[in-house]
């Protein structure tokens, strides 16, 4: 099975168009969209329309929870986004799962970690510093998704850092963002 995976669009229609064109040329069997779909200012309505048509959001991201009103804070940005987007978007985002399994249970997709879209799967914060997660932390964050239970690959986004680790036979991948517009680089990745 060939899977295309992307996430962290953050409302960047322009970068998403390039990513979707690349996906079309690759002709995958399925597309997984790891969330954080519209929280950004580079045409969130256009980004939502493209995702709805070509690659609907698969799992709920942390900023999707903000758009859905599930997490307080940043109300000025949320209000602006709600004025740009179809009225159905918050409800659509609110009911998305935290993770999904595909490919006969061999692949798990989540935004941050299978436990929470706010939790980094591959990174651990220690005070003011961030470090790669230790294998023990990864095992705990993966929960029941193990090699022995048929798990082979867990794919996440959230941190905007491409990463790869293997823990107890499970390959853990951070796919990175569609673009790094929040970091000042709006081009497609």
UniProtKB/TrEMBL annotation:
Residues 1-184 form the Calcineurin-like phosphoesterase domain. It comes from the Bacteria. GO terms for cellular component: cytoplasm. Gene3D superfamilies: 3.60.21.10. One of its GO terms (molecular function) is phosphatase activity. Belongs to the metallophosphoesterase superfamily. YfcE family. This is Metallophosphoesterase. It comes from Deinococcus aerius.
């Amino acid at each position: 099975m060939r899977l295309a995976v992307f996430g962290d669009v953050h409302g960047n229609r322009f970068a998403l168009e390039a990513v979707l064109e690349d996906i079309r040329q690759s002709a995958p069997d399925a597309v997984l969209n790891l969330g954080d779909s519209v929280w950004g200012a580079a045409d969130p309505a256009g980004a939502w329309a493209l995702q709805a048509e070509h690659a609907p959001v698969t799992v709920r991201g942390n900023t999707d929870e903000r758009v859905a009103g599930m997490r307080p804070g940043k109300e000025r940005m949320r209000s602006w986004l709600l004025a740009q987007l179809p009225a159905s978007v918050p409800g659509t985002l609110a009911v998305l799962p935290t993770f999904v399994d595909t490919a006969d249970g061999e692949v798990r997709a989540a935004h941050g970690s299978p436990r929470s879209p706010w939790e980094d799967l591959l990174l651990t914060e220690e005070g003011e510093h961030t470090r790669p997660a230790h294998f023990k932390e990864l095992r705990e964050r993966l929960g029941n998704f193990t090699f022995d239970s048929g798990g082979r690959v867990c794919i996440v986004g959230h941190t905007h850092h491409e990463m790869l680790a293997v823990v107890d036979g499970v390959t853990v991948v951070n796919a990175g963002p569609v673009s790094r517009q929040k970091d000042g680089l709006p081009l497609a990745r």
